[in-house]
Every structure is written in C-alpha cells, then in structure tokens.
From TrEMBL:
The keyword Signal applies. It comes from Tegillarca granosa (Malaysian cockle). Keywords: Signal. It holds the Pfam family LPMO_10. InterPro entries: Cellulose/chitin-bd_N (IPR004302). This is Chitin-binding type-4 domain-containing protein. It comes from the Eukaryota. Residues 1-19 form the signal peptide. Residues 20-132 form the Chitin-binding type-4 domain.
Length: 182
C-alpha cells in the first residue's frame, strides 16, 4: 500500500460557505497549535469563511481562497502562507478509513464534504479542480455529512480511497473540508 502523509489544507471552504468552525481531527494547519504542534497561533481559525458574506459576494464576486481565506487577501492558510509550515499532522495509509472531527462554533445549516489533493510540494497551492477529483466517501458510500444539533463537535469516518490506485504516488496530500448550504 502507498503511504499517504496528510497535511491539512482547508477549513470550511467553498463558494457557498457561511459557517464558523475548524477541522479538529486531523487538525487543520490553522488549528494545529491547539493540539501541541509548534505552529503559529491562529485565534481566528474558526473564521475561515471567505471574509464573510459581504466580502465574498459583494466584493469578490463569490470567489473564496481555497482554504477559506478572503479571495483578495493574503491567503495565510494556503501553501506559502503563514500557517502552512509544512508540518504533517497525521499519517494515513491508502485504503484506510479515518476518523474526522469538525468543531462547529456556529452552525448555519448545510453539510460537509471531505476531499483530498495529492501534492508532493508543500510550497505549491492546491486547486479546487484537484480537490474536486478526489471526493472522499463515508464507509456507507455517502459523500455528504449533515450535522444536526447546532454548535458542537461532529464526528464521522471517511475512506482515504474507495477505488484501488485512485491516487497518484505521493508523499503528501492536502485534505479539505467543504461546508455547503443546502
């Protein structure tokens, strides 16, 4: 089996995003400091929502940074940014079912999807097109997780791969979570 090292890339991203929270397990690159990693502290790690509705839609035409940063901002959470230190938070093996946790600090409805993007270069930014190619499935086959119950930590499992040899040989992948409204 191919060893897949996982660095965390995204948190609450998409052109439809409007939630507050962060990827707790595996820790997102913006939240790793909360779990003992020697990474920069981001007290706003639960606010990667594209700058907010007004900024995203009225100033940036619906565009959002791949990690939830403002489209017209510094992109601190993407490769090359302040929080993208190259530290790998978890190690997984292709075919493994992994436990994921999302901490919602403000629930606005919608659902989550988890995606990965194979990437051997920690200074190269992932693209939405790459993430769209590798949508992860829960063991039951669903790609969407609908959180119920408001602001809390939500747990799920996803398969790192659902088809043999789905991913190119790589030493590292970026994992992302999308929070979409229904």
């Amino acid at each position: 089996m191919i060893l897949i090292w996982t660095t965390i890339l995204l948190l609450m991203i998409s052109s439809f995003c409007n939630g507050h929270g962060y990827l707790k397990e595996p820790p997102s690159r913006s939240s790793m400091w909360r779990y003992g990693f020697n990474t920069p502290t981001n007290y706003n790690d639960n606010q990667l929502f594209c700058g907010g509705f007004d900024v995203q839609w009225n100033h940036n035409g619906g565009k959002c940074g791949i990690c939830g940063d403002r489209w017209d901002g510094s992109r601190d959470n993407e490769a090359g940014g302040k929080y993208a230190t190259g530290i790998i938070s978890r190690h997984y093996t292709e075919g493994q079912t992994i436990h994921v946790e999302v901490k919602l600090t403000k629930q606005h409805g919608g659902y989550f999807e988890f995606r990965i993007c194979p990437n051997n270069n920690p200074s190269r930014r992932a693209t939405q097109a790459c993430l769209n190619r590798y949508l992860l499935r829960q063991p039951g086959g669903s790609t969407r997780y609908f959180p119920k119950g408001g602001s809390q930590t939500y747990s799920s499992s996803v398969d790192v791969t659902t088809r043999p040899h789905m991913y190119p040989m790589c030493s590292s992948v970026d994992i992302g979570i999308q929070k979409l409204h229904t």
